[in-house]
Amino acid sequence: MSRYKNGPDTPTQSRRSGAVESRRSLVAIVRAYFHSHRKNASQSFDRLVSEPLQSVMTMLVVAIALALPTMLYVGVSSLQQLSGSWDSSAQMTLFLKKGAKDKAIQDLINELESNDELAEIRYISPREALDALQDSAGFGEALTHLDDNPLPPVLLVEPAAAIEANVPRVEQLMETLAQQPLVGEVQLDMKWLQRMQQILDIGRQITVLLGGALSLGVLLVVGNTIRLAIESRREEILVVKLVGGTNGFVRRPFLYTGLWYGVFGGLIAWLGVVIAQFWLGATVTRLAALYQSDFALKNIGLDGMLLLIALGGILGLIGAALAVGRHIAQLEP
Question: Which of 61, 157, 183, 225 is 20 to 30 Å from 232 by CA-CA measure?
Answer without folding.
Answer: 61
